[in-house]
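Hi W., the zinc ion complex you wanted:
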Amino acid sequence: MNTLTKQFRCATDLEKNLFMRLLYPPCCISCQDTHAHDSAYLTCFCKICEKTIVLAKPPKTSGTTKDWAIFNYRGAIKNTLLKWKSQQRWDYGKKLIQYSLHALQKQSNFSLFMSSVDLIVPIPPAFFRTLKRGLHPVDYFAKSVAQEYHKKTHFKALKRIHQSRQTAHNKQDRMEQSKNLFTLHKPNKELKNAHVLIIDDIKTTGATLQAAKMQLKHYGVSKISTLVIAEVI
Ligand SMILES: [Zn+2]
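Structure:
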């Protein structure tokens, strides 16, 4: 073992962290600029990119079920989501989820809302996306929310039955097409009596979430809420 390796092994955690940050300086996950930062959680965006991030408005409905979005789909959030999904940048994706969970914690009503949720159901990926991208970001987001709030996740509750690429259509076409987008794959009694939180990454027209809601309602689920990372405004 050479002297440098010996010294590194004997260093404290703080010294090791400082050394690793010299080797790998923090990098903005949106513009890839290396940047100085002064807060542990603000390590993933530079100050310029962070200014482009807009928190979504909290849901207006006053009942138990709510439709949440964390951010508006624009600026650094849009850029990072695109890189995560199209370039398989899981290093960016994981940091974005940490950032998103932190943003959710700051919304005081969200923790209260989550105490009424029993089960998390992620929107399943389209077939062509599964082939291209492997593990889907939505599953990772759902898993992270479930861990954070100690909730169960039912990954195979919904199954896609329509494989058309939705982005090619206008809003009206998408709403019409989405009517038969899902079927219930492995429903169970637990699902029927639960307050279900459907999770997706981006809400564009809301047609996908609406189709998932319709299937669950058809099965008899009475309480259904939704959560997305970003909503197109
Ligand atoms: Zn940046």
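The chain has a mean pLDDT of 83.

W.
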